[in-house]
């Protein structure tokens, strides 16, 4: 069963092939999802040209985790699909992800790829860029093949409302921006292949802070103060 975007009366909608819907009574997550996208009648949802399909269950899992399908979360979903395709990564393969923003973008990687902050599969370097680097899980000492993907402003200029949202020059509803992103598909993104050195797991050292008396993970053997106490007391020069 497949759905794709078809244009009718000037609007893009999901069309269904070879199947029927699962019922006329959407659950609360479906209602939340329907605020941003039209619920397809089948089980698959078209992400855009070059990005293929994602299951409805995947979309609902994002909604459940994130609270709703934000534009940033949808961009993360598209980036995940594009990264997997470019690197030839299957859905059940482990990946590592570096997100360059902490807003919305990381969540699809946590929900659908199992790359979380807790298992160290996801790192966030919040520099305010709509970009992500995806790498294969690779043994220590080797260089992990990967790809850095960015929502490219030179390409979003082709879509006025999308570009206005991206540059924050206009308030554009999520529903409208997500629809444009689906029409654009991979054409809104640029990417570059990378090789990322993989370091071994370092041995954790736990020390007792000499100020607050609480245990903390010591990253510098010469530092006897936890970061909280250094920041609170302005003791950046202490060692």
Structure description:
This protein folds into 2 domains: 2-197, 60s Ribosomal Protein L30, Chain: A (2-Layer Sandwich); 202-239. Helix content is 30%, strand content 26%. Mean pLDDT is 86; it is low at 1-22 and 235-239. The protein is an alpha+beta fold. The strands form 4 sheets. A 5-stranded mixed beta sheet has the order 6-5-7-8-9. The chain is globular, with a radius of gyration of 21 Å.
Blueprint of the fold:
Blueprint: E1 2-8, E2 11-17, H1 28-34, E3 44-48, E4 52-55, H2 56-66, H3 71-87, E5 95-99, H4 107-113, E6 122-124, E7 131-136, E8 143-151, H5 153-156, H6 160-166, H7 174-184, E9 189-197, E10 206-208, E11 215-217, H8 227-233
Parallel strand pairs: 5-6
Antiparallel strand pairs: 1-2, 3-4, 5-7, 7-8, 8-9, 10-11
What portion of the residues fall into strands of 2 or more residues?
25-35%
Largest β sheet strand count, sense and barrel closure:
5 strands, mixed
Helix-strand category: alpha+beta
Spans of at least 5 consecutive residues with low confidence: 1-22, 235-239
Features:
239 residues, alpha+beta, 60s Ribosomal Protein L30, Chain: A, two-stranded antiparallel sheet, 5-stranded mixed beta sheet
